[in-house]
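task queued by scheduler; priority normal; single chain, no ligands, no partner chains; default sampling; output format set to structure tokens
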Amino acid sequence: MRKLKTLESPKILYLIFLAIVILEIAAASFSVAFATSPEQRDAGISNIFLGILAIILFSLPWILESRFKFDIPNYLEITILSFLFFAIVLGNIHGLLETVKGYDKFLHAVSGILISVIGYEIILSYNQSKTRENQLKPGILSIFAFCFSITLLVIWEFYEFAVDTIAYNINNDTSRNMQRYQWLNESLIYPQPYGLMDTMLDLIIGSFGALLVSFIGWRIILYQQKKKRIEMIEND
């Protein structure tokens, strides 16, 4: 059992993903050094930056745990690492966000769910450290988790907008297209340019994921509190 538990540890997954990202950075550096076109060079530089960003984000759970003495559940660490790998390495570096239809929206739905779960873990840890009289009500916990998720989703859209804007001002012919502003809107339903539609759909889909987790979490906490009250009455 101990051997199986070790293999399932987030640490092993972290080391595997870390090794893959280091190889990606090495390949991107080689591509930059021997680039035969400006596009190849720019793509290599972008992948180096994304690789460094991935390493920082992969390491963030352990930094938070060691710095703030905050215990992140193993299931959540594994989920976070997997999501970052699918989003940054597969989605951006290997271009699945561009080549696989619906991949971007799938990631935003998962991110809304995942960030809400993280918000719940944070606020529940805070709540459990308080006396029963000072604990927050289930509705407040759900609102915090939902708002926490929405805030981070909006910040990510700020990041996408900033990257596209900076890249465009450096080179008008940039291939950087995180907000899909270079795509033509062929929809008969949405009259706005595709970039605006993409941003709003990302936020809406992420919000639905956050709302789902917040509602389920609210119902679970209510059920647990009701169960505790019944047990207290029966014990009396």
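post-processing summary
- Residues 190 and 197 are 7 Å apart (CA to CA).
- Residues 1-7 have pLDDT under 50 and may be disordered.
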